[in-house]
Amino acid sequence: MKTLSSMPQNLSDAERQASNCGLDIPKLQALLEEIEPPSEKYKMPPSLCDAQKQARNCGLDIPKLQALLAEIELLSEKYKIIFYLAATGLYSADDLAEMFNHSQKNLNADFNKNLGSHLKDYLELDERVGITSLRRVLFKKGYFVDINDDESVRVLPTRYAENSQTELNDDESVRVLPTRYAENSQTEQSFTVRQN
Known about the structure:
This protein is mainly alpha-helical. It folds into 3 domains: 11-44, no CATH class; 45-155, no CATH class; 160-194, no CATH class. The chain contains 10 helices and 3 strands, in the order H-H-H-H-H-H-H-H-H-E-E-H-E. A hairpin with a 4-residue loop joins strand 1 and strand 2. The radius of gyration is 27 Å and the shape is elongated.
């Protein structure tokens, strides 16, 4: 019986294994083209490199995640790919199950056994880590690239400063200027708030 780590990870691996079993690959390709043209649904799962690129594009810090996976346990490439794809938040458990030819129930159980329980222990979490909660947990634990660098991101001014302007009255109370809500609702009101 084949283990999960010996399963083909891409189309060329699957074709090579089929060829080694005596199948005529060109005839099979022609047959598949006649049945239905290739579609996204029947594509092989992405490679580990492609999964990491997707995760990087979704703001994840790949070197930190690689270090995390190295600390947890030796994982097959398949589960590393599932980890990165789940971390993007772009794929549901159903999508990943279909991509890796699993039932959703089995994929969730395998994910929890092979990754989730180790992540829970390593990250010292109170909650279980599953496919749908992985991205949220990684965000909370700082596994995303910090994109709030002053040099690379220019934050536009908000209306907060405008809306929170205050005037001091003679009786040392604060008069709050009308908010945008008041302007939009055509009723301008001012509120007097005592300073403590």
